[in-house]
Amino acid sequence: MLGFLQHPVVVTANVNLNLVVLTLMALLSRLWQLTYPRAVVFDEVYYGQYISFYMKRVFFLDGNGPPFGHMLLALGGYLGGFDGNFLWNRIGAEYSSNVPVWSLRLLPALAGALSVPMAYQIVWELRFSHCAAMGAALLMLIENALITQSRLMLLESVLILFNLLAVLSYLKFSNSQKHRPFSLRWWLWLMLTGVACACAIGIKYMGLFTYLLVLGVAAVHAWQLIGDRTLSNIMSSAFQASLEGGLARITQGQPLEVAYGSQVTLKNAFGKPVPCWLHSHQHFYPMIYENGRGSSHQQQVTCYPFKDVNNWWIVKDPGRHQLEVSSPPRPVRHGDVVQLVHGMTTRLLNTHDVAAPLSPHSQEVSCYIDYNVSMPAQNLWRLDIVNRESPADTWKTILSEVRFVHVNTSAILKLSGAHLPDWGFRQLEVVGEKLSRGYHESTVWNVEEHRYGKSQEQKERELELHSPIQVDISRNLSFMARFSELQWRMLTVRSDDSEHKYSSTPLDWVTLDTNIAYWLHPRTSAQIHLLGNVVIWASAGLATVLYALLFLWYLLRRRRKICDLPEDSWWRWVLAGVLCVGGWAVNYLPFFLMDKTLFLYHYLPALTFQILLLPVVLQHLSDHLCRSQLQRSFFSALVVAWYASACHVFNTLRPLTYGDKSLSASELKALRWKDSWDILIRKY
User: How far, in Å, CA of 146 to CA of 30, rounded?
Assistant: First the structure.
């Protein structure tokens, strides 16, 4: 009984040590001396006020964006025991002992640290090499501006984390779709994509653009899936009825069990080429088809892809004349023989040994008209509940998947999917499948709309069929209405847009013509500046331009039927560009349209996507443009030298990133932002 205890429990796991080391280094770079300086640094004076409001339960309206980011910072204060008692009125003010500085700065620091392994994962999920993934993570690790921003009580690092998480989750979801759709991993990454996008928007409204980017990529992938005829893309009636609004509004309150006298609409379960409902109308099959074959000239029966009163049918007991539900209702069960009466014309669903108009190997399905010729009615159908749980199962609205088996010929009512000619109004052909080839969704139907018929007279019944089933519209202000009003108020509240001495324009960010002095030590020359690593920024911009030129070159040559890249490599290159260049564009270009005070840190989310692109372009140059091994070796040496220069600049600017070293006047002059290229010139 306890035999399993005789052997040790062994767990085998694959651990990427490179990723572990990068994560530990990222945590060290962001968490080291996190409480220094113990003073209000730049925009901490702004965010701190809202944290105090939350701690003191004071109602306020933030006119600068959604509240989720402030709530996360306030969570750090709550966990650290902050009571909100601090006067946030001056940059550089010393924090009092009741302010948990480490706790307040912890979340942005963790977000900044986790962005490093996330960059690795994104490049890897784009199916580039481990070397390229390592390169992206290393650049995120040593970028000075990203380190500075993540070590303070600010929100850019949190926004970047959720932006990257949204992209990574979608890539993992997309790759799961190719291999194991609808698996647990598939659902996990799909839900995490939505959560990450929502969190990004909740941090700052700029997160909306990353959401739109992911949504656009998903739309393209969905379009490709729709064109894949091996996949079914139509949701079932049961799924649609489980959602609020739409079909749920129509089907709410319907009787569950179908009874004799029930009025129903029958939807085909196949859903291809479009979802449609069993339908008839007062038009007849032509006497002679275009190919010379004859028809029964009976009333047409089709499958119609729109809601219509002619989609209604009445379930009739063949042994009775009643067309209304008795009291109590008599439910229809698996194996029962029924007749289906078309609600608006009172003609019965029929099939006989006449070839269907477009499927000559199947039987024509019609609503029977008695022409007093030697063609008697054959309108009895046996109900076959495919998903029954017992032989006596009742026919249920929406839930039951049923087949109608013709009693006389054993043909099964089936949607062929072919479009009828103009005489059939381009509606879909319905046939009787004479040879049963096993279960197929085209032969399966389910009741979507259902009500108990109350009228025996035809005119009263027509009025009943024309009337809506149920209309239930709440007059109360809905949650979405309240939510929309709050968002609109936050968007339209004007904030202080006065000029700031460290404000800048979007063009200044790309040309590195700006920086921000975040903090100055009151007694020494130690200080913190928001400074970017000049090698990384310049190279990232160059990589973006180079990618655009290469993409256009490849596109033009492919137009001429010249494929420089294998198909798999081409689509990998395209997807990397859409996400990385697109991510940069949607997080940068909108600032040109904004009438607000802008700072260098607004560029950091866009820069992150450029950093992801940089090793992708480097690998592409090595793999596809370096023809010989000698060229590849020389190119690799250049890349190593370039990484070394980026590391050197990081180390040189380190005193202004952490602010933990007093600098002389000459040292400060040497680190002036516009002279930062001199660092490299003197070194190399």
Answer: 9
Nearest of 480, 587, 477, 473 to residue 207 by alpha carbon: 587
Question: Please, what is the angle between helix 207-226 and helix 184-203, to 10°?
Answer: 150
Band of pLDDT at residue 182, cut at 50, 70 and 90? confident
- Rounded CA-CA distance 47/40 in Å is 10
Q: How does DSSP assign 352-391, residue by residue?
A: EEEE-SS-TTSEEEEE----SSS------EEEEETT-SST
Q: What is the 3-state secondary structure (H, E, C) of 607-645?
A: HHHHHHHHHHHHHHHHHHHCCCHHHHHHHHHHHHHHHHH
Cβ 203 vs Cβ 164: under 8 Å: no
Question: Per-residue pLDDT averaged across 149-154, rounded?
Answer: 94
Give the C-alpha separation, 335 to 337, whole Å: 7
Supply the DSSP string of 572-605, one letter for each residue. Answer: HHHHHHHHHHHHHHHHHGGGGG--S---GGGGHH
Pick the last residue of a domain from 389, 422, 443.
443
CATH number at residue 283: 2.80.10.50
Q: What is the C-alpha to C-alpha distance for residues 618 and 637, in angstroms, rounded to an integer?
A: 12
**Domain limits for position 554:** 25-224+508-671
- Tokens 């194996």 correspond to 335
Both 42 and 148 in one domain: the answer is yes
Where are the extended beta strands (E) located within 498-613? 516-520, 527-530
The residue out of 443, 462, 491 marking a domain boundary is 443
The answer for residues whose C-beta is within 8 angstroms of residue 29's C-beta and 6 or more apart is 113, 141, 147
The conformational region for residue 438 under phi > 0 = left, psi -120 to 50 = alpha, else beta, is left
Tokens 């933030």 -> residue = 62
| CA-wise closest residue to 668 among 515, 505, 511, 500 | 515
Nearest 5 degrees, angle CA 483-CA 484-CA 486? 65
**Is residue 415 within 8 Å of 427, Cβ to Cβ?**
no
What are the pLDDT digits (tens) for 294-344?
888 899 999 998 888 999 999 999 998 888 888 888 999 999 999 999 999
Q: What is the pTM of this model?
A: 0.64
CA–centroid distance for 666 within its chain? 53
**End-to-end alpha carbon distance in the chain:** 72
Please write the tens of the pLDDT for every residue from 66-118.
Answer: 889 999 999 999 999 999 899 888 888 899 999 999 999 999 999 999 999 99
CB within 8 Å of 232: residues ≥ 6 apart: 270, 271, 272, 441
Beta bridge partners of 351: 365
- Do residues 37 and 528 make contact, with C-beta atoms less than 8 angstroms apart? yes
Residue 10 — very low, low, confident or very high, per pLDDT cuts 50/70/90? Answer: confident
Please give the structure tokens belonging to residue 58.
């004071």
Across residues 16-21, what is the average pLDDT? 90
Residues 42 and 123 in one domain: yes
In the chain, how many domains are there?
2
What is the reported pLDDT for 684? Answer: 41
**Average pLDDT over every residue of 562-580:** 91
